Amino acid sequence: MKAALFDFGAGNLHSLVRGLAQLGVDARIETDAKNCIGADLLVLPGVGAFGHAAQRLAPAREAVKQALVNDQPALGICLGMQLFFDSSEEGAGQGVGFIEGQVTRLTGKHVPHIGWTPVEGVPTEMYYAHSYACRPKDPAVVKAWSLHDGERIAAIVRKGRTVGVQFHPEKSSRAGLQLLGTLIREVTS
Q1: Which domains does the chain have, with CATH numbers?
Q2: N or C: which end of the chain has fewer CB within 10 A?
Q3: CA 129/CA 15 separation, integer angstroms
């Protein structure tokens, strides 16, 4: 399987490429999101600020959205998951708008949320590093939740063949990579 990772100028690219390689996925890094369309798996990585990433994605936003509508398998990690949504309080710019909803700042006492946290339905904790959370209009797209300072946050979202995770599976040890492999198989089968 070949994956195309969109490099929007910040991110967990190298650890993600290594993690995907361990799963048998041949990943290439692309600086133009249009070059990610048509890959076996389109990946939006997960470190950086929403406004900057949305600006880099803007020239290809509609093409990426159409690819998702047409069922191209896609994976978003942390910020990458947030980019599937309409917009964010974190910065100016539009997300892809494939999943209706907003991204808002966490309300807990400890922001940013950094550390190991349980994910509903997952046997081990996953590693989080974020200050914003996705608030989908349709709660049915949320496939798993986590709690941070009493606030329920969408941990995994899925719509069609698009899946997003708020945590960093590539930094969550063997269990994170196993979950990542499972999610990739689900959206590419």
Answers
A1: 2-188 (3.40.50.880)
A2: C
A3: 15
